Structure formats: structure tokens, C-alpha cells
DNA sequence: GCAATAGTGTCTGTAAGACAATATCCA
DNA sequence: TGGATATTGTCTTACAGACACTATTGC
């Protein structure tokens, strides 16, 4: 493949061609990776008998310099010349959460021209799901101002306009990110245009309070993907500890989908995905429940 | 948002910071867009009574210069500083097929270090589906050596190894691309590692005959995505003309999924996606069939 | 009339949604 | 013992898969 002695129009072999190739000839954009790191944590119990509630959280970092100084951004950074995109994302994940063996998936690449005031920046976004119980607290440490925010994304307004050959569907998604100290929010507009056979989707940040750059729309997109994939894949188990009860698992689904599920049906659907153990929860203030683990041999017939 | 008078640790406002920001400080990768442009064409009828068969085709371009001189590559090119990724992809699509109002979707971003011998190249891949009947022949013109290849991707070998905490599934996909003059092929290895809760997928080109760079794996990935999305979205209609018969529609599904479907069931499933017209096919050598058009108001409850 | 495709009817098994009933721990 | 959760059962409806049957054209 590389033993190429063919000459091009200038009469050069590949070797000669490469030796004079000037990679710095054109101006180039910068490339970053941005990470959406999600986890689900338990909140305080309200009552010794009740179960603790679960909350979906996202890791954000406070920017200490321009641009967007003082605002919160997705962890991430420039891709080095000698590391692949995946490696760059893994490095970021390791640096921010000290976890290196966990689910990670490329989400989407954002490349609008005015995204960053410094220069043209193209950002490859990744989504990672981590189990809060095995996580090093490093990230929740104040040291470099990285903090977990509870997330919610709700449909705020929907508008459908029927046109000649189709319709335009405009949705406003209200994004809320908060913890003890900070309260961030954003409005993300999604416009779906259907005209004849052709469908186009456009996303735009309409309003952003405390969230850097266009990160609000990356977050909104990630949540959408998470909600969608949890229905037909096993990714939710990356948010679970080694052993868990079926109710805990259900709570994770509910907090991500933002809706309640019926217990009996949920158990039927997940039955093949888990393996029963002989262990039980204790001291729960009510009937103990059996602990399960993930079944790695689960076969997915949806994908 | 940009009216930021806050000063950073060096005492600079955002304005000052940006004025001295040097975008050329670090070495940067190059960024390209690569397009997978699919279409489905009719082949010759074998018999005046039989229907014409359909074939899935992909547009490739013959490289006229190093590297990979003489090999076939996906159309694409460097992203300009003043155009978004989508715009770059649209520009490529327009240049290659002269079509500008059609389905286009971002696929995946490929950024391994040794992808291109010239320099570090990160490639954002897009997939586009075009209706061959409305297409300008420009692309199939020999002028710049762009040609349609019929595509097939078949599972060639599958190997599952059970490990302690899961398994390793290795699949070899045989890719064949051909037209009257050229016959290209490649073997793409997909390794899925399941260990406990963590699943990783790795793709690699094992063998490539006449296909430039790592484009074989981009093609294999695109076909996989196409096969998957056709099941629960309306993207197939982008491959159809304005009016079509249900059998033609079914043929498109069959050629993409590479398997036969039952007529009655197919019609039930697509019933909501199409609108009946009063027109019929003629001179078919058998019973005429009703023509349909896409129903833009079809609501997808799978996505 | 016959080859070939167009179009419809129906049976079966499986899965999703809704709801009900029973079981078990522990302060 | 009662509050709370755990676990199982079952009815209904929807839909996917398989197969069979009828209809209509051109030559």
C-alpha cells in the first residue's frame, strides 16, 4: 500500500511528494474534544422507610480565563497531534473523574464558524456514563472548580406550522443545571423542517445563563441521545454499581426518561439483561430486595 | 454575553485577551469532510414481463495525485475557515452530484493518528441519500473520474470468544464495490469487547484493494448506519422519485437490508408513511400498480 | 390463457401497557 | 401491626411474521 512507485502529473513518486508536502500551507481550524460526563446519584432519604431518590448529574468546569470567564463549560481540551480522538477523550475523562474503564461514545461534531471567539474551533463531543459509587471524588473536589450539576431538560414550548409540502416544528427546550451554589439555565431551539421528502434539523442556543459557548446545545443533544439509547441498549448499566436492586435500576431509567414506569412491565423488559444473585439488601425499613448484576451475555436484538 | 469586562488573572479584559491570542501557537490537525453519497438505481430488465432489479450504489472518486494515487476515495475535501461543517458537506455534495436539496446527515468523525501520510487529518463523515432519477449525470461523467459503484457489505466471518467477565466478538465484513471497469474490495474487522458492564467497539481495515486510506471502514460504518436507520425512520424516501409504487419502495428496503421482505407485512408497516395517488403505472407487462408519494406528515413514534 | 405482478385477508405468537394481588421485612 | 417496598400474575391490545388467496394487466 505504501510501496507506491507510481508518479503523479509532476513526475513525483509518493516519497518525493510527501517530502515536499507543506502541512502548514493553509490556515487550519483548532480541534477540541468536549465531554458530557453523566452520573446518577442518590439523594438523602426523606424518611427511614422511604427509598432515596435518584438524580441525573453532569460534570461542568468553571472557566478561569477568557473567553467565557466565570461561566461553566464542558470538560475538554485541544486534541494533541499524536493522540487519536478517542485517546483525547479518554485522557480528559481520566483527568476529570479519575476513571478510565467506562462507557464512552462519540456524540456529534460541532463546527459552526462563530463558536469560539478566539479562533475557528471544531469540537468533537463525547458522552460518558459513570457509576458514582466507584468514582474518585476528585471531580467533585473544589480544587479546579469542577462540579456536578443536577440536570433537567424539559420541553418548554412547541409550535407546529403546516406548510405547502410539509411542516415546520419548532421546539424550545429549557435546560436547567444546578447545585448548592450555582443555578444555570439555557433555552435551546430545535427547528425541524419537513419539506417534501427532505427533513432538516437545526439547533441553536437562544438564551444561556452561565453556560459557556454553545455548550447548552451540546448538553441538550446529549440528553436526547441518552434518552433515546437507554430504551434499546444496555448503556444504563454503566451508571449502576456492580450489584443493584431492580428498583434502583428502574429509578435510573425513570430519572433519565423523566417519567414513571410500571414496575411489572419494567421487570419483564429488563429480565434478560440482569443476573440474579443470592444477596439481598438489609435494614431498609421494609422488605429487603434481591440484588442483581448485569448480564454481559445479553443479546440485543434491537440494534 | 460578549460584553465581558471581567479581568482574568493577568488583569486582562476579554477584548485585550483576544487581541493578543495567537491561534497559530500550536500545531493543528487538518480537518476534512468526507461524503458517503448513496443512491439506488434500476438495472436492465431481464424479460419484458419481469420488473427491473434495484442496486445500491455509492459515489467514489479516483485519486489523481499522491497519496493513494490511482485508488478510489470518498468525495470530500478540506474544511474552509469560513464555512461550517454542514456547509462544507453541502458544497461537496453540490460539486459532485449537482444536487443541493436532499437528505444529509453527519455520521462519525474519524481521527486516528496515521490516517493520512501527509499530516494529521481528522475527517468528519457525512451520509447523503439521493434520488437517482433527478440526478444530474455530472458525477457519473468521466470528466473528473467520479463513478458510481454498486456496493455490497456481507458478514464474512464471525468469531465469539467467551471470557471471564463477558466475551469478545470479532466480525469480518467483506466490502465489494464494482462497476463496469473497476472491482474494489476490502475486509473490515469489527471487534466488540464486552467486559463486565463495559462494551467497546473497534473498527479496523484489514485489507484494502483499491480503496484509499481508511475509507473502507467509513463505508462499512455508513452502510451499517443506513441499514439500521431505514428500519425506524423515513430516510429511504430520499432515494425515491416523487411518485413510486409500493413494490419499488420495497425493493429499496430489500436492497439496503440485503434480505427479502414479505409483501403484505411491508405494506402494512409503510401504510402510514405514504399517500395514495390516482395514477398508475402503464405498459408493465402485467397488472398496473398504483403510484404513491411520501406523506410528509407521517409521525415517527420510534425515534 | 398464462406469466407475472398487485393487492388483501387472516392466523399465530410475542411483546407492551395497565392493573391487581400477594409477600416480606422492621421500627 | 402497619407502612413501605418487593415480587408475581394476568388481561387486553397492538403488532410483527408467515402464509394463502384473489385481482388485473399485456401479450
From TrEMBL, chains A, B:
SUPFAM superfamilies: Nudix (SSF55811), Winged helix' DNA-binding domain (SSF46785). The lineage of its organism: Bacteria, Bacillati, Bacillota, Clostridia, Eubacteriales. This is ADP-ribose pyrophosphatase. GO terms for molecular function: hydrolase activity. PROSITE patterns: NUDIX (PS51462), NUDIX_BOX (PS00893). Residues 28-174 form the Nudix hydrolase domain. Keywords: Hydrolase. The keyword Hydrolase applies.
Amino acid at each position: 500500500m505504501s510501496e507506491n512507485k507510481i508518479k503523479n502529473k509532476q513526475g513525483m513518486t509518493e516519497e518525493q511528494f510527501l517530502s515536499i508536502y507543506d502541512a502548514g500551507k493553509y490556515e487550519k481550524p483548532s480541534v477540541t474534544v468536549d465531554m458530557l460526563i453523566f452520573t446518577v446519584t442518590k439523594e438523602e432519604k426523606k424518611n427511614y422507610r422511604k427509598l432515596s431518590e435518584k438524580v441525573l448529574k453532569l460534570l461542568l468546569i468553571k472557566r478561569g480565563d477568557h473567553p467565557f470567564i466565570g461561566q461553566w463549560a464542558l470538560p475538554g481540551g485541544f486534541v494533541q497531534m499524536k493522540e487519536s480522538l478517542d485517546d483525547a477523550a479518554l485522557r480528559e475523562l481520566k483527568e476529570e473523574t479519575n476513571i478510565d474503564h467506562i462507557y464512552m461514545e462519540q456524540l456529534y461534531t460541532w463546527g459552526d464558524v462563530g463558536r469560539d471567539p478566539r479562533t475557528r474551533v471544531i469540537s468533537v463531543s463525547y458522552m460518558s456514563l459513570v457509576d458514582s459509587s466507584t468514582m474518585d471524588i476528585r471531580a467533585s473536589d473544589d480544587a479546579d472548580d469542577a462540579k456536578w450539576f443536577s440536570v433537567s431538560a424539559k420541553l418548554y414550548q412547541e409550535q407546529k406550522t403546516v406548510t405547502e409540502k410539509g411542516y415546520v416544528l419548532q421546539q424550545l427546550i429549557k435546560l436547567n443545571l444546578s447545585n448548592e451554589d450555582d443555578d444555570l439555565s439555557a433555552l435551546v431551539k430545535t427547528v425541524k423542517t419537513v419539506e417534501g421528502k427532505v427533513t432538516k434539523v437545526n439547533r441553536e442556543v437562544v438564551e444561556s445563563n452561565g453556560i459557556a459557548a454553545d455548550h447548552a446545545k451540546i448538553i441538550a443533544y446529549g440528553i436526547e441521545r441518552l434518552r433515546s439509547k437507554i430504551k434499546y441498549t444496555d448503556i444504563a448499566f454503566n451508571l449502576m454499581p456492580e450489584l443493584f436492586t431492580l428498583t434502583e435500576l428502574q429509578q435510573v431509567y425513570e430519572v433519565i426518561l423523566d417519567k414513571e414506569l410500571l414496575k411489572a412491565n419494567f421487570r419483564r423488559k429488563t429480565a434478560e439483561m440482569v443476573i440474579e444473585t443470592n444477596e439481598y439488601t438489609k435494614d431498609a425499613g421494609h422488605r429487603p430486595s434481591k440484588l442483581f448484576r448485569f448480564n454481559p451475555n445479553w443479546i440485543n436484538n434491537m440494534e
